[in-house]
Amino acid sequence: MVRDRDRSPEETAVDPAAEARRLEHDFDPVRPGETFTSAHEEFAELRPRCPLARSQEYGGFWAALGYDEVLSVITDIEHFTTSRQNAVPAFAFTGVRPPLHLDPPEHMAYRRVINQFFIPPRMRALEPRVRAVAVRLLEPLLEQRTVDVCKQYAHVFPAHVFAEFFNLAPETSEEIKRVSGTYVDAIQVLDHATVKSLSGRLYEIAQEIIDARTGGAFDPADDLTAALLAARYEGGPLPAPMVLGCVRQLIVTGMVAPSVFTGTMFVHLSRDPELQDLLRAQPHRIPAAVEEFLRLYSPYRGMARTAREDVVLSGELVRQHDPIALVYTSANRDEKVFPDGDSFVLDRPNIDRHISFGRGTHSCPGAPLARMMMRLTLEEFLARSSSFRVTEEPEMAVWAEWGTRSVPLEIIAG
Ligand code: HEM
Question: Bias category Basic and acidic residues: which stretches (predicted)?
């Protein structure tokens, strides 16, 4: 727990140094020219001297860079909320989107329903369909010598998986794939007008998904949207606008991270041919490799909480309504928790402490599906290739994600 027991907010509030601190600018989240290593280098330099960094971008925000700082914020629902600002920059233009935008106890009404759809028996039943999607998309790519594994696979795969997971018609899946792909790109380049208009379209698609289920055509036991419509909270159904927001959040939240994360595994493996060969020879070690990739290349750095009241955290005065970005990308390399944190260590002894999927109330319900998607991608790609290498410098996503947008590969078929 990093909250400062020695200094109360009242003591710090009258301290001019605390006020001056709020005007400092430790780092610039939108600095151009990011490379595959630059953000991690900057976080490694900042972490020891300001684990809770300050930036004046986006109207001013705190950035929790240290592992303890991130963990303290996400596990302290008494002092920090997601209901005000839950991302830096604030990108939600319309409506409340459960579960992320709600605090307990209301939050649990949605999570109870969602969680059931990610339990192990359901994941096992879904796996053959997810594998079939991966094979269908990868096979034509592997016939080409050069591909962009982000643009031609990572940006497409999640939408097809979602069609399977959400029982969607092929045409709906095609549209989600197209709209969300452009939406993810627009978020990454901070194109507010496009994000706003595509967000509206994604709401319409979410509504169409709901409408298709209102006649009872889908069994709530087998369909997440139907289950949300059938759920009860405080004696009545979940409010219609909230169910809409929830479906809208699910179809997009789960698209973004896999889209930017997948390419990072390929960059790493290109630069480490021995690991490539090891995983080809011993595919049972792929889940452990995926886990270490998730730690090393955590894709979220702009998810956020807002302080409910003045609070002192790591010696800094965080004012009521200040947003704090949860820089999972940095926290998971904190040397205090992960020795040699910048290196890939297969079977790292404390790998279960990584927080790539968050922790506590809002921890990622989709983690089992995300892990499966990454494992199946590597299993199928490695089995069908004898080697691959990156041919150009990867193009990077920008804050609020960390990861790749373009990874050109040369592949030697297996
Ligand atoms: C590599 C893949 C993924 C990563 C790294 C990831 C990471 C995360 C993280 C860190 C959070 C917590 C955010 C916070 O603390 O504010 C989160 C929440 C969430 N994720 Fe994921 N996620 C991934 C894939 C998915 C998938 C595939 C789905 C859905 C199918 C999904 C659905 C969600 C939802 C609905 C929430 C909000 C949970 C809540 O507020 O209770 N995610 N994710």
Answer: 1-10, 18-31
Rg (CA), the chain: 21
How far CA 37 is from CA of 32, 48, 267, 291, 321, in Å, comes to 13, 18, 11, 19, 32
Residue closest by Cα to atom 26 of ligand 1: 254
Cα gap 285→293, rounded to integer Å: 12
Give the integer Cα–Cα distance in Å for 394 and 381.
19
Strand partners, 317: 312
Whether residue 98 has its Cβ less than 6 Å from ligand 1:
no
* CATH value at residue 29: 1.10.630.10
> Looking at the domain assignment, is residue 72 inside a domain?
yes
| Distance from Cα 220 to the centre of ligand 1, integer Å | 22
Q: For 167-204, what is each residue's pLDDT tens digit?
A: 987 678 778 778 877 876 676 667 888 888 888 999 99
pTM over 0.85: yes
Residues 6+ apart with CB under 8 A from 291: 351, 354, 371
**Whether the Cβ atoms of residue 146 and residue 391 lie closer than 8 Å to each other:** yes
- Domain count for the chain, please give it: 1
